[in-house]
Give the backbone structure.
Amino acid sequence: MAGQNNRNSFYKILVVDDESAIRRFLSTVLSNDEFLLHEAESGNAGLAAAATVRPDVILLDLGLPDLDGIEVIRRIREWSQVPIIVLSVREREDDKVAALDAGADDYLTKPFGVGELMARIRAALRRSQQDVPEPVFSSGNLQVDFPRRLVSVDGQEVQLTPTEYDLLRLLVTHVGKVMTHSQILKQIWGVAYLEQPHVLRVNISNLRRKIETDPSRPQHIITEPGVGYRLKTY
Amino acid sequence: MAGQNNRNSFYKILVVDDESAIRRFLSTVLSNDEFLLHEAESGNAGLAAAATVRPDVILLDLGLPDLDGIEVIRRIREWSQVPIIVLSVREREDDKVAALDAGADDYLTKPFGVGELMARIRAALRRSQQDVPEPVFSSGNLQVDFPRRLVSVDGQEVQLTPTEYDLLRLLVTHVGKVMTHSQILKQIWGVAYLEQPHVLRVNISNLRRKIETDPSRPQHIITEPGVGYRLKTY
DNA sequence: GCCAGGCTTGACACTTTCTTGACGTCTGTT
DNA sequence: AACAGACGTCAAGAAAGTGTCAAGCCTGGC
């Protein structure tokens, strides 16, 4: 449960600290198959990286050479709600209050335990991952709701088999582009089926029967003769 | 900006601590025109208060007479995302990690500065200005009361085993979405059971017998063949 | 140590999905 | 107009997935 990554990808962590020793230390303890580290060694570099990298968490040192850390927090908060965890040697209460009120999410005083840092990172990620908008594909009368794995035509829910859904998802994720027969066969049935283009035709047919208003005149899944199929947008 | 209350009303803070001295201290420092304090002096009283009071923040001591604080966090997290700030004398890193991973948002070691506590409360409130979900789920003739762990069908209380309740809760918390077999197995039985999809089927069957009017025609727990299960809304 | 409830496991019947082959249709070319 | 090649449809058997029952095991409470 703890620290589990449901996203099929790395969480990006941005470390903003001018001491390379700290950056190297964090790099060793945090670089694993869950986190991907980016580094910045000044406030301005950090601000730039926050915008370009779009990290999931920012670890920020307050004592930076160019900008004050508090200022960095404020500037980021002008446009982003990304969790900011302050790592600082300053242990005065005023510093903590100032950083937290400027928009920081958490404040750790150096030296800190690695386990605690990682637990606080996980806590911050858990909170911020709660409300991610759901990507729903829509084209004409066809709707594909990926998180719900729901396909509907004219608002009516349609029941797809696993293979049909995979096939539709493949076309949707490459909407507009032609997917060749071999690309589709490889992705869905595996290389062993490259010589069996028949299964593809059968499944396209079944899929069309379910999502096309008139399967003999496909609106969505267009045949590109001799090449493959293409999902048309509306 | 800092500490400003945009809601035309008090923020409700629930203090769960068995030492009346601490409660009185927090009451003095936090009771002002911004916060309204509620108090509970045991874990069970805290759980009950969390459900009835619906606080905006919970300040939780780990050393409670009846339940372990970690368990209190877990039980609250079963149905609520309310920010939980742990106040504890335990300063071992393991305690912090356990509390944070159980679902706590922050962890302060006693003694702490009042200013820091208030800043961390403000930070937690700032983040959680989202609407709190109802602690009771209702769909058709099915009702799940999370704080009380009570399930009823047609107003009639239904007795579920712990596993069945966990399973139902998982589906309810992801209502509408398809939970794949592996997601469910991982969450409830652990990764070791990924190759044992049979236990899942048996439990789904048992659960259906208890909550479905006609278990052979499920209204709530829908099978998505080859993929998983999904709780339908009405 | 016994009992009750809950969990796991296996057997088996049932349902859905996948694969395969036969055949029909379309399109562009000669 | 006939043909070739590619594409689409249908249906039946095979395979995979799913639901149910019940026996045995484990565990915690008494």
Residues 197, 201-202, 204-206, 208-209, 215-216, 223, 225-226 of chain A lie near DNA strand D (CB under 10 Å from a C1'). The interface with chain B takes residues 1-3, 93-94, 96-97, 100-101, 103-106, 113, 115-116, 118-120, 122-123, 126-127, 130-131, 147-150, 161-162, 165 of chain A (CB under 8 Å). The radius of gyration of chain A is 25 Å.
